[in-house]
Every structure is written in C-alpha cells, then in structure tokens.
C-alpha cells in the first residue's frame, strides 16, 4: 500500500469517526433527552431533509432497483 493511500485512508477514517462521535451521537442524545422536535429545533430542517433523502435513496435502491435487476436477470 502506498504512503498516500494509507494517509488518505487514515484521514477518511478519522473524519468519519469525528463525524460519528460529535454529530451523530450528539443527535441521538438530543432525541433521547428531549425528543425529535427538539432535534429539529437544534439541527434545523436541513438535518431532517438529509435523513429523509438518505432513507428515500436507500429504500429505492433496496426495494425498486435491486428487484428490477434480479427480475431482469431471471427472465
């Protein structure tokens, strides 16, 4: 593995860990303590839209695109 690839992988892992540690865990704690409405008040509607977009893309791929390709390959 080249040095650049190792450094890039380490930076990416550190970024994701920091994101998880400071943003996602904090959001979970807000929901547990004060509820979803408080999370939206503190994080804003962009956070809500990001969550909706994530689940929309995930479910579309999982329940529409994947079965389409499986059926297309079988018939």
Write the layout of secondary structure elements.
Elements: H1 3-34, H2 36-43, H3 45-74
Helix pairs in contact: 1-2
What features would you highlight for this structure?
75 residues; mainly alpha; 2 domains; 0% strand; flat
Instruction: Tell me the number of strands.
Output: 0
What's the total helix number? 3
Mean pLDDT: 81
What ranges have pLDDT less than 50 throughout 5 or more consecutive residues? none
Helix content: over 70%
Short description:
The protein has 75 residues and is mainly α.
Report on this model:
The chain has 75 residues and is mainly alpha-helical. It has two domains: 1-43, no CATH class; 45-75. It is 93% helix and 0% strand. The chain has three helices and no strands. The protein has helices spanning 3-34, 36-43, 45-74. Helix 1 (3-34) crosses helix 2. The mean pLDDT is 81.
């Amino acid at each position: 593995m080249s040095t650049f690839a190792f450094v890039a992988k380490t930076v990416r892992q550190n970024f994701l860990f920091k994101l998880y540690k400071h943003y996602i865990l904090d959001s979970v704690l807000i929901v547990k303590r004060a509820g979803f409405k408080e999370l939206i008040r503190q994080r804003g509607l962009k956070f809500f839209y990001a969550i909706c977009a994530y689940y929309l893309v995930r479910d579309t791929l999982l329940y529409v695109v994947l079965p389409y390709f499986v059926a297309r390959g079988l018939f």
